[in-house]
Design a protein that fits this description.
The complex is a heterodimer of chains A (107) and B (116).
Chain A (H helix, E strand, L loop, with lengths): L3 E2 L5 E4 L4 E7 L7 E6 L6 E6 L3 E5 L2 E6 L4 E6 L8 E7 L4 E2 L3 E6 L1
Parallel strand pairs in A: 2-11
Antiparallel strand pairs in A: 1-3, 3-8, 4-5, 4-9, 6-7, 7-8, 9-10, 9-11
Chain B lengths: L4 E3 L2 E4 L5 E6 L6 E7 L6 E7 L2 E5 L7 E4 L6 E5 L8 E8 L10 E2 L3 E5 L1
Parallel strand pairs in B: 2-11
Antiparallel strand pairs in B: 1-3, 3-8, 4-5, 4-9, 5-6, 7-8, 9-10, 9-11
Classes of the chains: A mainly beta (107), B mainly beta (116).
Chain lengths: 107, 116
């Protein structure tokens, strides 16, 4: 079974700090990866997509992809309380999701 | 802005009944997905659909489930003989492209299914 894994437990950071979220995947054929944000009771909302090795920046968000290590990450700079949510990594031809990382940004 | 729409937003059904969840994907999208999220748990892939047939399905998607694109706009998930454990939020999503080079999927607001 081709999996996307997010193993880190809840993450708490102070306002203004950098939050770092990680994800690994098992299918070496996967080419596209996505980060979604999900607020409680709501549907997943796309934050970023990444297709190539390296970094991709969009405002306060930077996604990183390392295909050799099968690793995807998301950095959130200058974290705000409104960033508090569950962050989901997704990828693979099934568009499978990791279990998510719950981020809390404390004022 | 184009969006995925799902109906109903909440469905209550008796155990053993059949339910049909409806979705209207974004019009120029070619790949459609159904996911399930049990309260407090992860978003679980059920099935993907392309060119009027199932592209991939998970181990969850057994004979109890079926999908259909009955016309040019709707995409449905049928759940037969519902069980208490089918109670969950069901999300529909669509993307322009799928497979290994899939593009981002956009989600509907979900249908909360409650089996009593």
């Amino acid at each position: 079974q081709k999996e996307v894994e997010q193993n880190s437990g809840p993450l708490s950071v102070p306002e203004g700090a950098i939050a770092s979220l990680n994800c690994t995947y098992s299918d070496r054929g996967s080419q596209s990866f996505f980060w979604y944000r999900q607020y409680s009771g709501k549907s997943p909302e796309l934050i970023m997509s990444i297709y190539s090795n390296g970094d991709k920046e969009d405002g306060r968000f930077t996604a990183q992809l390392n295909k050799a290590s099968q690793y995807v990450s998301l950095l959130i700079r200058d974290s705000q309380p409104s960033d508090s949510a569950t962050y989901l990594c997704a990828g693979g031809k099934d568009m499978r999701f990791g279990a998510g990382t719950r981020l809390t940004v404390k004022p | 802005e184009p969006e995925v729409t799902q109906t109903p937003s909440h469905q209550v059904t008796q155990m053993g009944q059949e339910v049909i969840l409806r979705c209207v994907p974004i019009s120029n999208h070619l790949y459609f997905y159904w996911y399930r999220q049990i309260l407090g748990q992860k978003v679980e892939f059920l099935v993907s659909f392309y060119n009027n047939e199932i592209s991939e399905k998970s181990e969850i998607f057994d004979d109890q489930f079926s999908v259909e694109r009955p016309d040019g706009s709707n995409f449905t998930l049928k759940i037969r003989s519902t069980k208490l454990e089918d109670s969950a939020m069901y999300f529909c999503a669509s993307s322009e492209y799928g497979g290994l080079w899939n593009t981002e999927a956009f989600f509907g607001q979900g249908t909360r299914l409650t089996v009593v």
